[in-house]
Write a structure and sequence with these properties.
Layout lengths: L4 H10 L3 E4 L8 H11 L6 E4 L9 E3 L5 H7 L6 H13 L5 H10 L1 H4 L4 E2 L8 E4 L21 E2 L3 E5 L6 E4 L3 E5 L2 E3 L7 H11 L4 E7 L3 H8 L8 H9 L4 E4 L6 E3 L4 E15 L2 E2 L5 E2 L2 E13 L5 E3 L8 H20 L3 E5 L9 E6 L6 H10 L9 E5 L8 H11 L2 H4 E7 L12 E8 L21 H10 L6
Parallel strand pairs: 1-2, 3-18, 4-12, 20-21, 21-23
Antiparallel strand pairs: 2-3, 5-17, 6-9, 7-8, 7-11, 9-10, 10-17, 11-14, 12-13, 14-17, 15-16, 19-20, 22-23
Helix pairs in contact: 4-10, 8-9
The structure holds manganese (II) ion (MN).
């Protein structure tokens, strides 16, 4: 548990996980090139504290979650798998029947109740205030990440909005292009909750209030990217992760509470009637997403702590820092997938397929066509709906082992018989489909086929050595001098 982002940075530094760079580096492309080389190094490279970004006096922290170890440290555990285990146990404590029951039970669980955010009256994030024409967000070291980018972007903001109908809070991570001293883009895509909140404000003829927050306990940032079941508050989940409620303070000019000890808070509004060309942006797909109209965020107030640090990341051709964040999501949310699809034993969303492009799924096959049932279930499951290729394997396959995966796809799959090609919603950023956010998805059944599935030739046995011979050779192995 960290009181604030700088506390996390100090812990990274004492663990030898953070490197300070005092030599000036430009936020225009140079920080990206340095950070990208770190992120592409075999173990993810160190977190970087760029102390002197040229033209700015606010340091930039980047790659802070860019390794399995630092991602785990960010969530206050030795390894992210511990959180998955805890969630699995919490879910197993009650045995509700329907899906709705299960989600409600999840909300009721004691640890979640104790995790509710706490209201406080002051916080570090409001030590310095600027209002109206005194606001200048260009004083911050926003990164221009790639050469063809439309401008500098905020890459790690937590965007807070409230549902105009229910008042319910949402926190999402949507990139924000800097247009000028007081205006940014707001890249909430059509499937995202922030965009839904804006639509509901539009129905009422209203603007929507927004806070964009940088910093705070990294558990908050992680919660903002987490595919939580609908209705679960990101700040409640952050409280669950950090085992302590998130202290939240009321923003100065809008009716939104924000993490009290964040580094930087931008307060303002989005007018649903207004849009502006946003992008291009070198995206997590490894390609530039093209310029297109998006809503505009008007910043009416900026509050910061006295000496803030600016948290940033970059995305691009994998592997990147977001790969480690995505892997943590994969581990932590497997128990939630298993709530609705319990036959799923394991899942691997490969970093190189940018997560939503491919899924390797291991199941305990129980009935004819079971693999197809699992594909359809996954395509009906929140953001998993965007998975373009699903490969389903039996329980004798290690889906984390790419050699095993490729061996089984090649050996066990008859593409004509074992494939399922469907249409449906795709990721907004997918450039392969003809129509934006709508196109094809394919599933492949790579399990052993049964007679009851129409396979009558008798599935062959996998080659394995007998156990007694393995033991005998084990016992004489050293003598063989191999
Ligand atoms: Mn949400």
């Amino acid at each position: 548990m960290y009181t604030d982002f700088q506390h996390f940075l100090r812990e990274l530094e004492s663990a030898g996980e953070l490197k300070r760079i005092s030599r000036p580096l430009s936020p225009r492309l140079e920080i990206t090139e340095v950070a990208d080389r770190c992120m592409k190094s075999p173990r993810g490279g160190p977190a970087l504290l760029i102390e002197n970004p040229t033209g700015h006096d606010v340091p930039v922290a980047i790659n802070t979650m860019g390794s399995r170890k630092r991602m785990s440290m960010a969530l206050g555990v030795g390894d992210v798998q511990e959180i998955a285990q805890e969630l699995e146990e919490l879910i197993q404590t009650e045995l509700p029947t329907g899906i709705a029951d299960k989600l409600r039970a999840l909300g009721k669980l004691a640890r979640f109740a104790k995790a509710a955010p706490k209201r406080v009256s002051s916080g570090l994030c409001q030590q310095v205030e600027a209002h109206g024409n005194d606001v200048d967000i260009t004083s911050l070291p926003h990164l221009t990440c790639w050469p063809l980018d439309g401008g500098p972007f905020i890459t790690l903001p937590m965007v807070f909005t409230h549902d105009p109908a229910t008042g319910r809070r949402n926190v999402g991570l949507y990139r924000m292009q800097i247009y000028d001293e007081r205006t940014t883009g707001m890249h909430w895509q059509m499937h995202k909750v922030g965009a839904e909140h804006m639509r509901r404000a539009a129905e009422r003829g209203k603007k929507i209030e927004v806070c964009a927050v940088l910093g705070g306990d990294p558990a908050c940032t992680f919660s903002a990217i987490s595919p939580l079941p609908p209705g679960i508050d990101e700040m409640l989940f952050a409280g669950f992760l950090r085992k302590k409620p998130v202290p939240m303070v009321k923003a100065k000019t809008v009716d939104i509470r924000v993490p009290a000890d964040a580094e930087i808070v931008l307060e303002g509004y989005v007018d649903p009637e207004e849009s502006r060309v946003e992008g291009p942006f070198g995206d997590h797909t490894g390609y530039y997403s093209p310029a297109e109209p998006f809503p505009v965020f008007h910043v009416t107030c900026m509050t910061t702590r006295e000496k803030p640090v600016y948290p940033a990341t970059i995305v691009g051709i994998p592997p990147m820092e977001d790969g480690y964040m995505g892997k943590a999501v994969e581990r932590i949310f497997l128990p939630l997938i298993r709530l609705t699809v319990p036959e799923v034993l394991d899942i691997n969303l490969p970093v190189d397929a940018c997560f939503h492009n491919m899924a390797f799924v291991k199941i305990k096959k129980r009935y004819p066509g079971h693999a197809f049932k699992v594909m359809n279930a996954i395509w009906g499951l929140g953001q998993m709906a965007f998975t373009k290729f699903i490969f389903v394997f039996g329980d004798d396959v290690d889906v984390q082992d790419m050699r095993d995966v490729i061996f089984r796809i090649g050996a066990n799959c008859d593409p004509a018989r074992d494939s399922l090609i469907i249409k449906g919603p795709l990721d907004h950023l997918d450039h392969a489909c003809d129509i934006q956010a709508f196109g094809g998805k394919a599933g492949f059944d790579c399990t052993h086929k049964w007679t009851s599935e129409g396979y009558t030739r008798g599935w062959p046995e996998l080659i394995t050595m007998s156990e007694d011979v393995k033991r005998r050779i084990d016992s004489i192995w050293d003598e063989l001098g191999l």
